[in-house]
Known about the structure:
It is a multi-pass membrane protein. By secondary structure, the chain is mainly alpha-helical. The protein is about 75% helix and about 0% strand. It contains 15 helices and no strands.
Amino acid sequence: MDPQTFMDVATVVTKLKMYPYFDVAHFILCCIAVRDDIVPQAQAAGAQVVTFQRKHPLSSWLSSMLVCFAGSFIANFLLGEPVITPFKDQRALATASIIWYVVNYSPFDMVYKLCKLLPFKLLLCMLKEVQRAHKVYHGVIHTAKIYPNGYAIIVLIGMIKGNGSGLMRNFERLVRGIWVPGSNEILQPTFVTKACLVASIIFLSERLNFIAVPHPLIYFGVVIFFVYFKLSSILLGIVDPFVPLENLFCAIFMGGMWDAMRRAVKAEPVKEEDKDGMLRNDVIKSKEEKKKD
């Protein structure tokens, strides 16, 4: 592609409006994620999945709204801003509520089944990843205005803005009557959280002039990064490409190498009785094989 054309495309992507298409895709996937998370709960109780939405519509709606606006809720709480501010946007709240309704209560469950089809799922995920990059960037910019020299805070809020739904999971499950403290993003960070952390660092580095590249190219590169790995996880089953780097880092800097050396040094020699037993077993096996022949 011609460099100027590529630059024009990157500029257009940078100026994209998130409402309605990208926000709608985000709301759909969030409501589907909450509904899918109800499946284990219903199976454990021996009930049908649709029973929960019928019996507890308020809980289902509130948990879906918490996931849809999770990044703003958590970021506002940490920055000392009103937590309920996301509900001030009546248009976004009404859109998310309508989507929650059609995902859970459409006739013959058509909307849910349609969104689960692979072509529609790919389209929704691509739109959501574009919005994720937008959220990370604006989280970094907003926090940098409040704490210009608080680099750790800037990176943290950018990451939370990008994957607030993952960090909100335990609380929104609690709204639905589930408490699973052993499963959260701090204990087991997902690839999305790690990718948002990397994107926050990139945007912060750009703001500090450590990266001498035009902003549209950096922003477009982050969008491509998000979209590419999301499609790879769906189509190719690539769950977390950071795992090899993490394993190498832990082996070198987190004591993994020394633990392996200590286990090798402290390995107990095989006892004489165990050696005799192993020899006897080998003899018995050889005799049985000869009998079979």
